[in-house]
Amino acid sequence: MIAGIDPLLDRLRTMNNVAGDLAVSTVVGKWNDAVDLTAGVWAGGVGDGDVVASESTAD
């Protein structure tokens, strides 16, 4: 029975690990003023220099 649910539990552990790493990286970056949470995707918008896929000028 354990062999049947272990892949699912492994995915949940990995998801938890990645989410924790992202949260800690964001907090440390904010403490060191390396992350600007008022611009870009954090603010729910697109920055001035960002290219949106629908606006790309690729030939």
UniProtKB/TrEMBL annotation:
It comes from the Archaea. GO terms for molecular function: symporter activity. InterPro entries: Na:dicarbo_symporter_sf. Keywords: Membrane, Transmembrane, Transmembrane helix. SUPFAM superfamilies: Proton glutamate symport protein. GO terms for cellular component: membrane. This is Sodium:dicarboxylate symporter.
